[in-house]
Design brief:
314 residues, 8-stranded mixed sheet, 10 helices
Length: 314
């Protein structure tokens, strides 16, 4: 952010007019994704709610319609844990323009599970699903002047670097380490995507954001899946005490997606201790800016997903 953009109290009211822009937001049925989609629609964007659960996706569609009368929104099913679903979604986009892709959906600290394609779920959903989706939608993004790709990471990426030799946690699975690695992968993906876009002389901006500690259903999902009711209840209490609202948590994503002058490979989060507050530049681990690591993750991701970014220079 330049000095002219260091606004202390940037809010959703400051989102520029989005009339004529088209956006895809993954995981838009709840939490950060829902707020992101709603506020983009409020500013005039045509928004696709890309969600795994059809019932919840359609409920979100109705909610946005009631909160933003006249909103131009549609629901399309997308399961990031199933590459066939990712390909079907991309094919259904029809090759038109796409101004904004928000890679928001994610899972956190789950018991050990595998995706439909056999990947460890957190790495498969949080990184590989979005890697494949971005690559498949890249021709539309490249064909749209001023397009952006915003990927949502987490400050918990600081807890663990990726292990290229064990991306799917085959040797030892620790749920929080796997989550942190998937969030580091998000940032390393943004770094490498921004580098390749620049090498290809594209004006598409690849940036990252994180919500700080936002009170959503993300924190309790893992404990519920593991049958740990007490932990799930404790998470709910913690959300209420220290978490900021989903509306506040979505501001860094909305800033990265819409504010003028957002830089490629930037990382936006809450201003106060990267925990809460208005959007500001956020600290990130040095390993998420490592060119060699970015190239290795990129090559592995292409091999695992079968999605290649042929339009970009390496």
């Amino acid at each position: 952010m330049t000095s002219s953009q260091r606004t202390t109290h940037w809010t959703a009211r400051d989102i520029p007019d989005q009339d004529g822009r088209r956006a895809v937001v993954t995981g838009a049925n709840s939490g950060i994704g829902y707020v992101t989609a709603r506020e983009l629609a409020r500013k005039g964007a045509k928004v696709v709610l890309a969600c795994r659960n059809e019932d919840r996706g359609r409920e979100a569609l109705e909610r946005i319609g009631s909160e933003v009368p006249g909103a131009d929104v549609e629901f399309r099913r997308l399961d990031l844990g199933d590459l066939a679903s990712v390909r079907e979604f991309a094919e259904g986009e029809g090759g038109g323009t796409l101004d904004l892709l928000v890679n928001n959906a994610g899972v956190m600290a789950l018991p050990h599970r595998r995706t439909a394609d056999g990947f460890e779920t957190q790495f498969g959903v949080n990184h590989l699903g979005h890697f494949a989706l971005t690559g498949l939608l890249l021709p539309q993004l490249l064909a749209t002047p001023g397009a952006r790709v915003v990927t949502v990471s987490s400050m918990l990426h600081l807890a663990a670097n990726i292990d290229v030799a064990d991306l799917n946690s085959e040797h030892r699975y620790r749920r929080w380490t796997a989550y942190a690695r998937s969030k580091s992968a998000n940032l390393l993906f943004v770094h490498e995507l921004a580098r390749r876009l620049a090498a290809s002389e594209s004006d598409v901006v690849a940036a990252a954001a994180h919500p700080g500690y936002a009170s959503t259903n993300l924190q309790a999902t893992g404990p519920r899946m593991a049958g740990r009711r007490a932990t799930a209840a404790l998470m709910a209490v913690g959300n209420g005490i220290v978490g900021q609202s989903a509306d506040a948590g979505a501001l860094p994503t909305l800033y990265a997606a819409t504010a003028p002058g957002v830089r490629p490979n930037s990382f936006t989060g809450p201003r106060f201790l990267a925990w809460r507050g208005s959007p500001a530049p956020s600290p990130r681990a040095g390993w998420t800016r490592n060119d060699a690591a970015g190239e290795r993750l990129w090559a592995a991701s292409q091999a695992l997903t079968g999605v290649t970014y042929t339009a970009l220079k390496g």
